[in-house]
Fold each of these.
Amino acid sequence: MWRRVASLSSFISSSNCSFLAQATCRLNIWESLTTGIAQQAKGVIVPKEKTPFITFVLGGPGSGKGTQCIKIVETFGFTHLSAGDLLRREISSNSADGAMILNTIKEGKIVPSQVTVKLIQKEMELRDNHKFLIDGFPRTEENRIAFERIIGVEPNVVLFFDCPEEEMVKRVLNRNQGRVDDNLETIRKRLKVFEALNLPVINYYSQRGKLHTVNAVGTVDEIYEQVRPAFSALEQVVG
């Protein structure tokens, strides 16, 4: 069903609807596909499965996207999946993939797409919720393509937290969370990689009518006031 639903995305995005109108239209069509209750030969009614509602949350390190995800979860009941947290958890497991991920992050490079997508997929399959915030992914066009190929669905909404580089550097250095990648040299590398590789992803989703850009400078509450309307308008249809 995920693959059948995903095939509708190009049809929906080709319209001239606004960001919120497209997202609502897309979800209504998806719900109509999954609402039909199948009847088996013996007359047994099989309840529908909820179509996943996926929001990608993009922004450079220190843009505040993780903090805003917490508020979205509290208000709208999404499950928050942080790509960075999943990678760090894999590192701490001392697996072969974990060692590779650690070396890649230290060099300020992007972890192979399939590795990250598989970690995200595993977490999605373990959750009962159908509403997901996927934080810090996709970071590249390769990431985006791998997600759509492996998971078989496109995101409904893409949030982009737009924040000046120096502000992001200041925030990361001040957060003091003991992360392996929270040092000035690695931060600069990560920001350069982010700028070079993330812009095509942002442009792609802008053209698809799925992008909601947030000015990520201000207090947490001021920034959230830009985020909240995107979800408030969808709350009734998302469920």
Amino acid sequence: MTFLPLAILLLLHISFVCSSLPILNGTSVTTLDISDSSSCSNTRTLWDIIWSCAATLFACTWTAIHPNVPGMDEGKFTVLSRRLGIMMIALIAPEVMITWATIQFISARGAAKAFNDAFGWTVTHGFFAWMGGFMLYFNGKPRATLKPDELLGFVREGSVEMPVIMEADMEDRSKGDALSKGIAILQLAWFVLQLVARYVQNLPMTLLELDTLAVAALTSISYGFWWKKPKDVGRPHAVHWKATASPPSELAYEYVVNILALNRSNSPAF
């Protein structure tokens, strides 16, 4: 299912290129003659255009996507498939990504305000909580991913200790390094400069390039909302249920449906 959106996207983009070929302003799709210096400076091949657009789209979408913390039992293939699926959504419907990022930013800011007075949370803490960053452990086993309001309620009841995690620690868990961000920014800047230069020289551009510019611009908006969100965190922070507290009631994101039933099923029968 992951490759179906990719096939649709490729068909759409190929149609964009083909429809714009008659007006490519001397942008020949044939092989360049390297002995002709003027031809080399003014002529682009079809593959030059496709490669430039594909590199820009990949750099922008791969860097901009900030997925949530994966499940405890999810393997690398599942995580990669989900990331590729999100990339396809970003390429086909970038406005969906903007909506998703905006909702997450508003939720993270609300969680930061709720925890800020007593615990000094920042927006990064709010993002970390809403992306599944806190896992409740009951009797030494993972029980559920905690929502911010559930965590706050359990802390006030005294059922769990408030997890102490600094913003620097969350940034350390994040895999969004400066190198990957810098490469994406440089690729996007180079692509935009090329289009600006062609516009100034009154040279036409393909529909594929215009489509790439639009997708990159919209993806940058999502990236702005996710700027403080930790990127590619692989494991949640453990929150242990106190032994003196009563067992937790029904939770929003149950990891184990019923701990007691699971224990009974694993016990020997007499």
Amino acid sequence: MEAINSTHRWSSNFVRGLQLCPWAGASLDTPGAVRYWVLVVEDSGSDTIEQEQRWTATLGKMESLVRRAGRQLGRITSPSMTEEGADQIDPSVAISFVVLVDNQSGRLPDFGTFHEFFLELEDRLLDECDDYWDIIDDDDSEDSVEEGDAENVPLGCDITVAAFHPQWQFGHDGDYAENDQAIAYEKRTPYPTISIVKSSAIDALMSQNENGEMDARRDSGGALDASAPATMRIAAKNQQTLEGFGVKRLKEMFESEVVRCPLDHGNLK
């Protein structure tokens, strides 16, 4: 399916090619580490259904698929949950993408609609985790969370999600073309997409990144000053990289290295 192919090209040619994510290469080079889930927006065939209601139904299905993909991610990265005969995937490289595509007669949600949906989904996942630990704390039963009891831990405690969209904008409303910024290409994908990774893996990778940079500064005689979190440094580096190319060049690269198919942004309504 073209949605999978173009998302893979985005991961390989754009994200890894521009070094926008320090760990993208390891995921792409590990067999089975990258999983793709595709939800096709069906054309209702009726003008009487309100667009808002249709997006509510479609994005509700997307949330269900995100949860299903998240549970599978937990299974393939856990020694106690990996199916017999299946290879366990290193949590530090495992990632799943849930991609929303149209059927050529349907339409995809615009950035504002999709972003609002994502923020609400993220809040629900975080609230599930907070409620779980509140109960554990109230019962003073931390020891009752036995090793291997991961299936009872809410999904929101286990995964971290991120959103991407063809019209992604930072801090702007209205026509995305008129407000185009180079940094927006950090979050632009061929289709509306949600990525899913293990939260524990993110924490471990960030810790490794911090330790590695501390060692590098020590070896070079650099000062060991308190530094910004790894995520902030990655974001700053990405902004410098993308602004160095500029919007015009990034758009050309995105279309030639990623899209390679007639993706009409006019279908995003």
Amino acid sequence: MKHSHSNIQTSPDLEACRTHSPLERASLDYWHLPPGALFALANWTFLDAAILSAHAHPPYDDPQIPPPVHVQFVDWVPGICSLLGMLIINLIDIRGDDYGDSTAVWRAHHFLFIGFAFMAGGPAGSVSLLVLKYAMMDYPEQYTYYGYVNVSQNVALMLSVVVLWIAQSAHTEYDYILTLQPQMQLH
């Protein structure tokens, strides 16, 4: 078989490698869904806690005392740090080995370090916020929920990055054959 844009002939074996069963195509096309689901779940749970906090009030038959604590900007900071770390880490192309000169490699490592620092700062900040703002003040459980959700958001965002990183780093046999194809002498 000839390609329309070159004179290279490929063997039928290589053409057969390009066709996948529906199950194989599904595994290649949907590798990004679990990290996306974790990302959505993480942010949705925190948004739910923020909305719940904004509309919190005591039961109607109790005296109308305002809630002791609300989700404020300081509660958003750990999640913002995790999101920034997630963006920085995922903007680095981990599949390419050819970054050019050594300064480009150094810059890529530098940005990965900054991204991982942001990612580590998110869960650390949310745990310290849980302890200092919610647990030490001995609030009822309906208010400490805000702190637990903050921690779960940051852990889920970190897991999302890890799962996405592993999914992007995993090379299938199909990728390996396509990588070798230009280097092979085909008749």
